[in-house]
């Protein structure tokens, strides 16, 4: 069974940085769009960043643009989210997701990781 496994979450002070990674268990995912979503308590899951399998298409939500950066390694079958200048409102569970084809809508993603907690203290 295909798995996406996130790592790198934790507790950081406002203004700090964290780096999230997501590894896919099957190499066939190298050609899939990879994305990060997040869900804060009592809020809906929201889009954070996405990158196409070629890396040509990259999108960020307005709330993280200029602070977060997504990248991928198709050889290692990983996707990374570098998060800088973190704010308390970035606190959420962050999920890695994958799909065949490019989209920013979480409902269209059919492969998900288990999530990793990011907590930003003020």
Explain the overall architecture.
This protein is an all-beta fold and about 120 residues long. Helix content is about 0%, strand content about 50%. Strands 2, 4, 5, 6, 9, 10 and 11 form a 7-stranded mixed sheet that branches. It has a 4-stranded antiparallel sheet with strand order 1-3-8-7, with no helix packed on it. A hairpin with a 6-residue loop joins strand 4 (about 35-40) and strand 5 (about 45-50). It is globular, with a radius of gyration of 13 Å. The N and C termini lie far apart (about 40 Å). The mean pLDDT is about 95.
- SSE arrangement, N to C: EEEEEEEEEEE
Q: Helix segment count?
A: 0
Distance between the termini: 40 Å
Secondary-structure-based class equals mainly beta
State the helicity in percent bands: under 10%
**What share of residues are in beta strands?**
over 45%
CA gyration radius, whole angstroms = 13 Å
Largest sheet: 7 strands, mixed
Nearest-integer average pLDDT? 94
Form type? globular
Count of extended strands: 11
Spans of 5+ residues with little confidence (pLDDT < 50)?
none
Give me some keywords for this one:
122 residues, mainly beta, 7-stranded mixed beta sheet, 4-stranded antiparallel beta sheet
Secondary structure layout:
Blueprint: E1 4-7, E2 10-13, E3 18-24, E4 33-39, E5 46-51, E6 58-60, E7 68-73, E8 78-83, E9 92-99, E10 111-112, E11 116-121
Parallel strand pairs: 2-11
Antiparallel strand pairs: 1-3, 3-8, 4-5, 4-9, 5-6, 7-8, 9-10, 9-11
Quick structural gist:
With 122 residues, the chain is mostly beta strands. It contains no helices and eleven strands.
């Amino acid at each position: 069974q295909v798995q996406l496994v996130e790592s790198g979450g934790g507790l950081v002070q406002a203004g700090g940085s964290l780096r999230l990674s997501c590894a896919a268990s099957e190499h066939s995912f190298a050609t899939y769009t990879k994305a990060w979503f997040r869900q804060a308590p009592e809020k809906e899951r929201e889009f954070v960043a996405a990158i196409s399998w070629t890396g040509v298409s990259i999108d960020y939500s307005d709330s993280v643009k200029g602070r977060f950066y997504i990248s991928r390694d198709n050889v290692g079958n990983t996707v990374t989210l570098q998060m800088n200048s973190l704010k308390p409102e970035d606190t959420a569970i962050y999920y890695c997701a994958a799909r065949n084809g490019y989209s920013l809508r979480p409902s269209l993603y059919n492969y998900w990781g288990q999530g990793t907690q990011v907590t930003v203290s003020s």
